[in-house]
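Saturday, quiet lab. Running sequence design on the structure tokens for the scaffold JK sent over.
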């Protein structure tokens, strides 16, 4: 991210800015100065004078506490160790975001818990941070959006965050969809995963069960049993759907129903399954037109420029 202020090169020529309307991403919540030029923090770095507003400050690692109930609950220790090695060698290049702790004691993390954990492991005493004035709703919104745009949340964590924003802060599904740059149906479908038994949710949370498989299990009486079979035998989503339909219908009408759903209009059920998987992964509408002989067209549908920006970032691997 870059701020939106005009920048001027040394020769006086203006730097070409990104077109307005795209690339806002987290800037819409963080503020235009959310991330300035990379700031290097190392154990021996001198602490700069305190700065006002959104300027990057260096604050003590020990004065920062994690956000209670932050969206992400699973942290990859191997990835944090790798990040700690990088920070130890090069410093922390991107500031974290904090707010004053509600009890007045130090700071509370808003975004950047992985970086904070890795900085502690690397032995840093101070790290660069943006200190923002945020209420609880804005704090949780930023934590959610940052994790989603960095693709750090699993489906259950994301769904739980949506539910909290709806129940605790009064957001609608439409408002959440706009906030995270995804479709309303994506938000609704994810939240339905929270109706699954806890055992199935745990399998999704640790990566053993994919979101597509989990969705197929919604409403199944033997959801946990089928989920364990999926993990053990590597069943496809279509196989799971067939098992669930057989459970509900006694098995007699399952084959016909299975064909009528996945094979509608003569479409290849595998192509339909890929469409569904990509749609769930990206949170937008996806259409595949297969012409045979390995050829076809893939269409990604977006409902706003924010969604288009998100698609571009995902495809280009651009850092948020």
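Result came back. Writing it out in full:
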């Amino acid at each position: 991210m870059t701020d939106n202020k005009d920048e001027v090169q040394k020769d006086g020529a203006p730097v070409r800015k990104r077109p307005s309307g795209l690339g806002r991403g987290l800037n819409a919540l963080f503020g235009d100065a959310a991330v300035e030029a990379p700031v290097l923090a190392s154990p021996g770095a001198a602490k700069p004078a305190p700065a006002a507003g959104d300027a990057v400050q260096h604050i003590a690692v020990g004065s920062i506490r994690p956000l209670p109930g932050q969206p992400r609950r699973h942290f990859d220790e191997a990835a944090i160790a790798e990040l700690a090695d990088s920070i130890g060698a090069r410093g922390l290049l991107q500031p974290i975001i904090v707010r004053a702790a509600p009890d007045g004691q130090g700071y509370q993390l808003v975004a950047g818990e992985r970086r904070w954990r890795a900085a502690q492991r690397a032995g840093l005493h101070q790290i660069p941070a943006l200190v923002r004035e945020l209420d609880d709703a804005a704090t949780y919104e930023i934590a959610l959006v940052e994790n989603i745009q960095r693709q750090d949340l699993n489906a259950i964590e994301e769904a739980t965050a949506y539910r909290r924003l709806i129940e605790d802060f009064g957001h609608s599904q439409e408002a959440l969809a706009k906030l995270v740059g995804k479709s309303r149906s994506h938000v609704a479908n994810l939240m339905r995963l929270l109706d699954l038994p806890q055992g199935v949710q745990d399998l999704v949370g640790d990566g053993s069960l994919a979101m597509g498989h989990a969705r197929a299990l919604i409403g199944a009486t033997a959801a946990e049993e089928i989920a364990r079979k999926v993990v053990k035998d590597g069943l496809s989503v279509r196989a799971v759907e067939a098992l669930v339909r057989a459970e509900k219908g006694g098995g007699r009408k399952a084959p016909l129903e299975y064909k009528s759903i996945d094979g509608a209009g003569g479409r290849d059920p595998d192509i339909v399954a890929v469409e569904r998987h990509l749609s769930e992964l990206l949170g937008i509408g996806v259409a595949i037109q297969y012409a045979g002989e390995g050829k076809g067209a893939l269409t990604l549908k977006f409902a706003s420029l924010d969604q288009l920006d998100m698609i571009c970032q995902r495809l280009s691997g651009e850092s948020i």
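Notes for JK: The mean pLDDT is 74. The CA atoms of residues 27 and 97 lie 13 Å apart. Ask whether to fix the surface positions before the next round.
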